[in-house]
């Protein structure tokens, strides 16, 4: 073409007709070539190649439509502001377009996941793609787990202008996989596992060991109910056991039940799913072997205690005689030594007596002499019986008497033993000049007796062990009145033997309230009460 133009410019410089004719021929040939190429291009445009290109464009469109239909797609600028979203995004996260478009992507992330967001933004800003798992938050707060691919998009100058986010929702698949893995693991456990509704007690899941105990097939679990497999007394006791969980006062609860098929320990906690549904999860463990081992150990200790009891009683009596001055007046130094010996012998005798009581309770030798008892009278008697010890600790016992009768069917002597232990603990740990409150109140189908102190409180870490034998809470021991570490264990044994529950509420620096609950009993008639008292006296 350049040659042609050069020749054309020199046209008027040509002197001969031959040279002009030659130039004209070249121009004609060039024109023909251009025309031929144009016709060839037109023919090529109507060939299958063009149709292939059209089909390819259609395929790209369909692929984009399918991607938009089955994945979560969004576009964000380099500052993280969301520019557009597809319907999959709106459905997955529960937003409307107005609520999400124009807002920063941070609204999809929990605070602990923000570092991941900032890292991926830096990667995309460098023009590099990013791929990985993410944990995002929907509008209602539930977690959406996604597999994310982020592709940087460039402008005409090759600079990153925004980012295309393509996500796949894996929440359902991960949950299903976790459930399958959990079920396989839980099915093989030697403990019984029950998952059930807290209001109806209907089963959601029961593992193989639990199904064997209650005699139920796997395909019948969903229609079964926990209430159908335990006695009314056991269910009533269990309702009181889980009440602190449902009220948000505790995260776990533990109780021992002497079931007809053997003693079991029940550890229960409440589980809340992402959508807010609550289920109770109870792990039931057969503690027959543990009980036998404990009983064997306790029997050995009890045998020694029996041998120690008689000489200790004699030593204590002799020391009391010395203190009384029967054998003559003691010098101050000797009186001090005798006083120390007397107090320690009394403490040893208390430990021996507690061990013997605990051994009887654990072996089943103790038979409860049940009769109708008004708990209001029990509190008054307990306050009177422990008034001297309270005065020694410089605390006042304050009894709040209920207006209505509070009858239970119980062994009054054993309940008095429980009250004495709780009152003595409260008095020991309360500051001088404070009050220890005794009260009884109605709790559904039960009566609750509570003993409240103003002491240092109990660490939450001690909740699981405080009722165990020889347990004393570190940091809150009473130096003036040391205990045996058996009192609360005896209390729990007695209350459980009555079919009740015992627990405590506490606040560090403010004090603690120990309470037990027993099922209500009908108020007896005058004649019935007289007969019951006569029978109890005869049994004693």
Explain what this protein looks like in three dimensions:
By secondary structure, the protein is an alpha+beta fold. The protein has 5 domains: 2-45; 68-169, PAS domain (Beta-Lactamase), CATH 3.30.450.20; 179-286, PAS domain (Beta-Lactamase), CATH 3.30.450.20; 291-363, Signal transduction histidine kinase, dimerisation/phosphotransfer (DHp) domain (Helix Hairpins, Orthogonal Bundle), CATH 1.10.287; 371-539, Heat Shock Protein 90. Helix content is 46%, strand content 23%. The chain has helices at 2-9, 17-45, 48-70, 87-93, 97-100, 114-125, 171-187, 208-214, 232-246, 288-324, 332-363, 375-385, 387-392, 412-429, 487-497, 526-539; strands spanning 72-77, 82-85, 130-137, 143-154, 160-169, 192-196, 203-206, 252-259, 262-272, 278-286, 371-374, 396-400, 407-410, 435-443, 446-452, 501-507, 511-519. It has a 5-stranded antiparallel β-sheet with strand order 2-1-5-4-3, with helices on both faces. A hairpin with a 6-residue loop joins β6 (192-196) and β7 (203-206).
Summarize this entry quickly:
This is histidine kinase. The chain has helices at 2-9, 17-45, 48-70, 87-93, 97-100, 114-125, 171-187, 208-214, 232-246, 288-324, 332-363, 375-385, 387-392, 412-429, 487-497, 526-539; strands at 72-77, 82-85, 130-137, 143-154, 160-169, 192-196, 203-206, 252-259, 262-272, 278-286, 371-374, 396-400, 407-410, 435-443, 446-452, 501-507, 511-519.
